Amino acid sequence: MDAPAPLIDPFARPITYLRVSVTDRCDFRCTYCMAEHMQFLPKKDLLTLEELDRLCSVFVRLGVRKLRVTGGEPLVRRNIMEFFRAMSRHLGQGLDELTLTTNGSQLARFAGELADCGVRRVNVSLDTLKDDRFARITRWGRLEQVMEGIAAATSAGLRVKINTVALKGFNEDELFPLLDWCATEGHDLTFIEVMPMGEMTEEQRLGQYWPLSDLNARIAERFSLTPLAERTGGPARYVRINETGQKVGFITPLTHNFCESCNRVRLTCTGELFMCLGQEDRADLRAALRASPSDADLSNAIREAITRKPKGHDFDYSRQHVSGQVSRYMSHTGG
Ligand code: SAM
Ligand code: SF4
Q1: Which of 19, 22, 26, 139 should be mutated for ligand 2, with most atoms under 8 A from CB?
Q2: CATH label of the domain that carries residue 206
Q3: Contact 123, 232 (CB under 8 A)
Q4: What's the pTM value of the predicted model, to 2 decimals?
């Protein structure tokens, strides 16, 4: 059978990257991501692992080459390794990369199996190296457990990239300790600008906003930096620290300048497809999935959704207020 036409959006961007949230649940309650007492979705609303498999497999057939599994915390979903194992059959058969973003709490248990499933790299979120701060920001997390998870991932041969949300007044003094620790351990490090997601007052939002241009400037005072041409189609920019050889990324979702190369869409655990992280428009693929056993109908529903991918998002921290805020939590769409 001929390969189907690839997914190309109205702005001529090929859609080759799918981020899939497999659960909205999590064993942590990071303050910038979730409320302490979250109302989670009823289990019946979630796609089953078989449905996730079917849907992701159709995306791969339509040209998705990279699949990132996220959440919520993906590794707390029951039997999630079945899904990884199922997706691993596409590696080298259309799919170039199968990867995940995790808080690291369950990595000690799953790192080996992930490696067996062809996962080569994991992103682990870590905002601080201090136990008490870690407990404060994650509310329910234990730093030691995450450190054990990271060590297990490294032992299993997985490359670890650390994702750190830059939070004013919280981890400003850990910029260099985090860089040093990652250099010693051989992990890449990416800083993320905090995004206006979920319910939070404007004052709280602006209070924690630490622009990455400031981090970059502070690093540049101590080291010489070479900007890297590497682009992922996403909001990350990379520099090389010449003195250590370390690669450091900056994810600035609040600047518009990455939208033109955006190659990704996001699938929620209920089967909604968000064509843009910063917009509310979505397509209900669960309905299409459950309406018919035909993958042709599902492909058509995906193609229709891609025709609605917007040119860009509207997040903006102006000096005085936050605009473009979207009310859903990051755990809903998957970070
Ligand atoms: N639980 C996993 C984890 O923490 O890595 C995966 C899901 S989490 C929603 C994905 C990423 O989103 C994490 O790196 C987290 O720090 C980031 N994140 C969550 N809320 C955010 C926000 N309001 N602004 C920026 N990044 C956020
Ligand atoms: Fe959970 Fe990740 Fe959100 Fe933290 S950032 S609450 S670990 S989903």
Answers
A1: 26
A2: 3.20.20.70
A3: no
A4: 0.92
